[in-house]
Amino acid sequence: MERPNVLILMSDEHRYDVCGFAQNTVVRTPNLDRLAEGAVIFDNAYTPSPVCIPARQCMAAGQYPRTCGVESFGEDLEPNYRTFARIFSEHGYQTAACGKLHHLGLDQMQGWRYRIAGDTEVAVSYYRKQSGDGEAVYQFDSRLKWDDKKEILRAGSGDPVHAREDRLTVEGCRNFIHGYFVDSFYDRPKREEPLMLYVGLRNPHYPYIASQELFDYYLNRVEPYTNTAPSAHPFLGRCSNCPPLVIGGEVTMREVKRAMAAYYANVETVDTQFGRILHYLEEAGENLDDWIILYTSDHGEMLGEHSIWEKQRFYEGSVRVPFFIRYPRRFAPGRCRKNVNLIDIYATLCELCGSPAPEGLESRSLTGLLEGRGEDWLDETISQWGGRNLMIKNGNLKYHYYGDDGSELLFDLEKDPEENRDFGREPGYEEQMAYFRRRREEIGF
Question: What would the pLDDT profile of 340-392 be if each residue is shown by its tens digit?
């Protein structure tokens, strides 16, 4: 079978609804929108965990956090894990990862043949040695994390480290593309060998700092979300790590708009960087219609909804991600409303590219959905966080379980898309709650 080249574009902490192809009329994302016009857009795509490291490692492993052993920030896959990069590397593909992968363990490659880092990504550690006798003990360095209020108050214009590292990532990717497809100096291009190319950027992840020009453009255009009332739930609304920041209380309306403007500006910056990658490929003589091109993010950003910033919650703004697959040689453009997950990328790429999928995956191939066939698809997906908390989404219903206190919530997104109302104890939902409890026990929570 034909073995197409694969391009995986990934941003960091990008909300599902801050894209032009998601009908957002304020943000400017022309390059992603151009790709999306020829793609199948998955409107209900979810992260396996609303935190950077578990999300990325689960996507690489094709498994949920509890299965692959990465349930919290700071953990990593075991060395030589059967990632999709390793499978493709072992079965005829050249594989190159540019930018952020977020590995912290001993195996910094995890199956990729080439590794082009932006700056400090490879072998980065968020842990420091603690003083004491005997064996060294490493603990998470909390000095690296400012509280959310400080992030909001310092929002504005500048040149944060993420933007600088992304520029280095894109420049390194440009050099790799030239060497792989052109190589006019040594004249040894590898273009006859199929390539899987991954480009992972750090923006629009906070800090909420962006270029002056783009920051100024968005400052008077962004509008805060209307559902800003914090939840009374102890985790959704009262988490000690990132407590709610109420407009008119802890922060002002203007401060919120400044943070949102910087975030939107960084989304546009990401789009521009991805546009450069597409240009470099076309400049090297590649026809993008021959490629499988996939775009997504590891998780979302609350961006002030329910007075919450960052991620970690099972609210839509945090757990839902932008996602499309473009392969016009085989699939007509369209939109899919079924519930899917980032872990499904693994089995999908294996099927499309003729690489054997290993045993033990929880990933499901999206090929049928890409072809417009959804009748046999179980319209359900899950997300986990911290080894104790679970979300199950089936159709429009979204069930939460929190292991610390055993609390449950049920949101009906058709009746309440802003997730303000708990339907779990309301009449008419008894059968659905019984189903979710059975599923929770089957999953092991």
Answer: 999 999 999 999 999 999 999 999 999 999 999 989 999 999 999 988 999 99
Rounded to the nearest 5 degrees, what angle is found at the Cα of 442, between the Cα atoms of 238 and 348?
A: 90
> Which CATH entry fits the domain spanning 6-128+135-373: 3.30.1330.10, 3.40.50.720, 3.40.720.10, 2.102.10.10?
3.40.720.10
CA atoms within 13 A on the CB side of 332: 4
Taking alpha carbons only, the member of 308, 345, 318 closest to residue 50 is 318
**Dihedral sign of CA atoms 61, 381, 22, 13 in order:** negative
Please list the residue range(s) of the chain that carry CATH number 3.40.720.10.
6-128+135-373
Indicate the Cα dihedral angle 221, 226, 227, 228, nearest 10°. 70
Altogether, the residues listed in the chain come to a count of 445
Q: List beta partners, residue 96.
A: 114, 197
* Two tokens, residue 410: 């049920």
Give the C-alpha separation, 169 to 40, whole Å.
27
Extended beta strands in 239-396, E state: 292-297, 320-321, 323-326, 334-341, 380-385, 389-394
Sign of the four-CA dihedral 173, 52, 218, 259: negative
* DSSP H or E stretch at residue 46: strand 40-46
Residues 6+ apart with CB under 8 A from 278: 31, 35, 288
Summarised one tens digit per residue, pLDDT across range 63-105 is 999 999 999 887 889 999 999 999 999 999 999 999 999 887 7
Q: Name the nearest CA neighbour of 173 among 101, 111, 117.
A: 117
Per-residue pLDDT at 135: 61
**Integer Cα distance of 1 and 23 in angstroms:** 37
CA-to-CA distance for 204 and 251, rounded, in angstroms? 21
Distances in Å between the Cα of 193 and the Cα atoms of 7, 85, 115, 181 are: 14, 15, 18, 10
